[in-house]
Amino acid sequence: MDEDFVLKEDAVFEEEPSVNTKKENGFVKAVKNFIPWKGDNLSKILTKLLFAAIIVSLVVSSCYVGDFMVKYFQNKSIVDDARDKYDRNDDSVNDQTGVFNRYELLLQQNTDCVGWITVPNTNVDNPIYQTVNNDFYLDHNGIKEKSVYGAIFADYRDIISRAGNSKNITLYGHHMKDGSMFAQLHRYKTISFYKENPVITFDTIYGTGGQYKVFACMITNADNMDDNGYFFDFAAPSFRSDADFMSWIEQIRRRSLYNTAVDVNANDQILTLSTCTYEVKDADLLCVVVARKVRDGESVAVNTGDVTTNSKIIYPQAWYDHFKGVKPTYADGLYTWVSGDYDREDVNAPGSIAPESVVSEPTSSNTSSEAPVSSQAPTSSEAPASSTAPSQQLPTPTNPFTSSAEMQAPTPIAPLPTPIG
């Protein structure tokens, strides 16, 4: 009896530790499967390290995408809300302020609202804001909250008033790779898209906007260091004379990716849309679409059948450095424009400039209407025009998209590039 009791007591005593040991070994075994452990060979250590790196990467990516999704839907919600507040069918006007009542709710939300921009067959259908500088709306949305998306905004130098607007109104917007803001302006790089969408709509709170015929799409520089120290002031709001204005138009023609049938005269009003473009790495280049207002009594129709590729496009020097090309020359040898510098009779006297008078005839090998003309590397073998350019002091760049500390935002598929323009 005593012996049986001792055996049973020993059995009970041995059973409990065995259960605890099993649990402990299971936990330790699980840990050993995921992190390097004493006794592991090199192959196991490398495998576990790789697995750990994948886990960390997934966690970081999840946080990154999650942060993007929050920002994306916040921006979408704000823009959608603005569209709901904008009653585009209300043509009544506030007698005291002269402001169209369609903007009443938007102005209650943000008094910086100055108008609305709509580009056909794109998602560009946004309110426009303006403040005392070109910095604030780079990283603030339409309700003045910090946002990597910013807002569509007018150059602070531009006059948008009840009495009328500046000669040239310039609007800026980020190029977000999720396709929002001004990203889809890049569609105008192709002749085929231009042919289908030659007219855009720009409205102001005073009704001083209208419909505008696109006559040029160019790639230019935001930083003067990307063009031998020269910055073409595409955003100039006013001009010293009609001749000065027409000289500016000529330089836009020379930079345009294609030639259009839309004429421009000294009495026209211009609308310029700007965003970033990324064909050349490490260069601050912009895609700029330029249009002129439909004149009183003029048909809104555009003859798009005559559009041709520009065979002598003037790009910034950074473009030629990248594609190993040479800047072409024109008859007057100029590729620069400095306000007030054009008094010679051979450079645009006041009056109408038809497209064919300011561009060369395209070569037969350069007339495709489907390929993105912006992707064509320069092929001119002519001497650089910089050798004959005037030696006057060049203008200081006024474009807002020149900061080296630009922000980035992700997209559900891939990270967004630097937004900007």
Brief account:
This protein is α+β, with helices and mostly antiparallel strands and 421 residues long. It has helices spanning 2-32, 42-85, 104-109, 191-196, 242-255, 317-323, and strands spanning 113-118, 125-129, 153-154, 168-172, 199-204, 210-221, 258-259, 270-277, 285-293, 308-309.
Structural class by secondary-structure content: alpha+beta
Please report the total strand number as a whole number: 10
Uncertain segments of ≥5 residues (pLDDT<50)? 11-16, 341-372, 374-420
Specify the biggest β-sheet: 8 strands, mixed
Write up this protein.
The chain has 421 residues and is an alpha+beta fold. It has a domain at 104-387: Sortase (Sortase, Chain: A, Beta Barrel), CATH 2.40.260.10. The chain is 26% helix and 14% strand. The chain is built from six helices and ten strands, in the order αααββββαββαββββα. The protein has an eight-stranded mixed beta sheet. Strands 7-10 form a two-stranded antiparallel sheet. The longest helix is centred in the first third of the chain and has 44 residues, at 42-85. The model is unreliable at 11-16, 341-372 and 374-420 (pLDDT under 50).
Note the main attributes of this structure.
two-stranded antiparallel ribbon; 8-stranded mixed β-sheet; alpha+beta; disordered C terminus
Give the secondary structure arrangement, pairings included:
Blueprint: H1 2-32, H2 42-85, H3 104-109, E1 113-118, E2 125-129, E3 153-154, E4 168-172, H4 191-196, E5 199-204, E6 210-221, H5 242-255, E7 258-259, E8 270-277, E9 285-293, E10 308-309, H6 317-323
